[in-house]
Design goal:
The chain has four helices and two strands; from the N terminus they run βααααβ. The chain has a two-stranded antiparallel ribbon with strand order 1-2. The chain starts with a strand and ends in a 7-residue tail after the last strand. It has one domain: 434 Repressor (Amino-terminal Domain) (Orthogonal Bundle). By secondary structure, it is mainly alpha-helical. It is globular and about 35 Å long.
């Protein structure tokens, strides 16, 4: 699954640590999500969408291999 978290963080002038604090996870979790090592829960995706004031689909998108 692709994501635009790094780009959105830059647009909103947020560090990984500040985003993590806003959505109540660790900075390491943000790093893992950004790098594609961890797929966030629905709750976390909704929290991120709220922080960035965008739809979830503007943050995350499926790739062909996600369809298995």
């Amino acid at each position: 699954m692709k994501n635009r978290i790094r780009i959105l963080r830059a647009e909103h002038n947020l560090s990984q640590a500040s985003l993590a604090k806003k959505i109540q996870v660790s900075r390491q979790s943000i790093n893992a999500i950004e790098s594609g090592k961890y797929v966030p829960s629905t709750l976390l995706t909704l929290k991120m969408a709220s922080v960035f004031d965008v739809e979830v689909s503007e943050i995350f998108s499926l790739e062909e291999e996600d369809w298995g």
